[in-house]
Amino acid sequence: MPTRLGTMLDRFFFENGPTLGMGVTFSPKVDTYETEKSYNIDAALPGLKQEDIKVDFDQGVLTISGERKFENERNEHQYHVVENGYGSFMRTFQLPNAGDANKIQATFDNGVLHVEVPKDGRRPSQHQIPIKSGSKNK
């Protein structure tokens, strides 16, 4: 028999937010900015590993994609609310003609993917960008 506190918590959880199974998806937050030398994208990807992320360039469009998995295979907990989004994601960015796609660099550090597109004016048609470990400030 549920306790009064348990009943109150269940009511609070189910009346005040998304619950497991209600389709909470993951779409990373990004900051885009320009410096004198480059175009930059910082994507918040907490809980992901570098190998779960892919950065591609195709005909002027930079794509960041991957998947954030819900890790509860052992069912150790009875979840009442899951507000973190999970699932596959894809963010696309149209790059200016001045971006040099041959020199795009991507680094992943502390849950943040930093993509730097140097300004140069050349624009090849397609390639995948390797992601390096480490801070963008190194």
Automatic annotation (TrEMBL):
Chain ranges of the SHSP domain: 21-134
A Pfam family reported for this protein in Swiss-Prot or TrEMBL: HSP20
Gene3D superfamilies hit by this protein: 2.60.40.790
Matches recorded under InterPro entries: A-crystallin/Hsp20_dom, HSP20-like_chaperone, Small_HSP
PROSITE patterns: SHSP (PS01031)
Region (Disordered): 117-138
SUPFAM superfamilies found in the cross-reference section: HSP20-like chaperones
Family: Belongs to the small heat shock protein (HSP20) family.
Name of the protein described by the UniProt record: SHSP domain-containing protein
